[in-house]
Design brief:
- This protein is mainly alpha-helical and 67 residues long.
- It is 66% helix and 0% strand.
- The protein is built from three helices and no strands.
- It has helices at 12-25, 32-50, 52-62.
- The two termini are 27 Å apart.
- The model has no long low-confidence stretch (mean pLDDT 79).
Length: 67
């Protein structure tokens, strides 16, 4: 379900964090429409906090390359 980049993070940690987000927000984060809305809200917050140039640079670095 999750790909954790840091092998020191226990597999239950992301699951526990999702559960806490669901409890605090009152929404089912594991449903695709809700997950997308949360992702877009986080992206908008990051855009506002770091500025467009930094976010575009990070997105380009994370995007898969075509060969």
């Amino acid at each position: 379900m999750f790909a954790v980049a840091d092998p020191r993070v226990h597999r239950n940690t992301p699951l526990h964090r999702l559960t806490k987000i669901e409890e605090l927000s009152g929404r089912r984060v594991r449903e695709p429409p809700t997950a997308m809305a949360l992702y877009l809200a986080c992206l908008a917050d990051a855009l506002q906090a770091t500025g467009r140039r930094q976010l575009v640079t990070d997105s380009a670095r994370l995007a898969p390359t075509r060969r």
